[in-house]
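USER: Please consider what follows.
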Amino acid sequence: MMEDDMREKARNAMRLILEAARFEVDEVDQPLDLSAVRDDTCLLVLCSNDKNVISQFDKTNYSLMVNDHEMTCKKLLFTFEKDLSTENCVQWGIDEFVRYAGEAVLADILSRELALDLSGTRAKKAAVIAAGAGAAVAAPPQGSGITLPHFPIKITEQAAIKTAGIQGSAKLRFMPYFLFHYKSTGEQVYKDRRIPFDADGWGAINAINGIKLELDGKAVVEDEIPAGAEVADPHIAKEEASDRITNELIERLTQKVRIKQEKGDAIFYEEKILKPEKKNITIESKQVYIPVWQIRGKKIIEVNAYTGELLSEPMDEGVEVF
């Protein structure tokens, strides 16, 4: 049995998760714990280890009448019983609870909406998602056998579709980038002016279309990618990417110096353009991949699967994949 104080704590945590997903949450009468409503979705939550209560919850159909409109309610179960399975509700255990409680806290810190997948049940495949919109998440996708250095996938397929704002099929694609660390040193002196060219930073350049991103290479992982994901081939060579980065860094650090001079009754200004020397610039780069959800509906929308950013233009053009 789940003790009363433990059940109350579980109920409070589930409320936080659901509210992070922008549900309106209320407590309901026993034996249930919470109801949550958002748009056309109604969710009922039960926190229990009692097999009889869970069995009744699993086989009972619930509906909610809102403004003369009847909605069929989804059901979300949170239980510590590892061997228990249900057929008609989303089931969360400790793993799902910990995962979504943590993500809810992060969503609150970042002032973002927590994305919950309501598509499946534990009985159909494994791990489901936490309390709230009554979400269930399918078991982690199987590996593809391909190991790549890439930024981790933090955005789920359902969250990407929601961000895209269209209905359609989603495919996970890994886009090639050159992750670079640049460092510039040295200085130039003109008249009485000293111009330093110190710079140190990270970035990434798309190996297909040359578009740059600000990324920190410390987040890259060397891991197997999910089965079914596409991997795009680079169209820009590593040397070409390094030259582009060097030239753009020189352009950014270039300064125009204006010196005021007086000769007798005349005052005139002299301008000098000072640039860093290539020999004082070092570029370290390696090829990495950024995961992108491509949603194909009435139009094609892409969402960065690492940052959740909606991309304003495709990351590739006529990409070849293997």
In short: The two ends are 52 Å apart (CA to CA). Confidence is low (pLDDT under 50) at residues 120-141, 318-322.
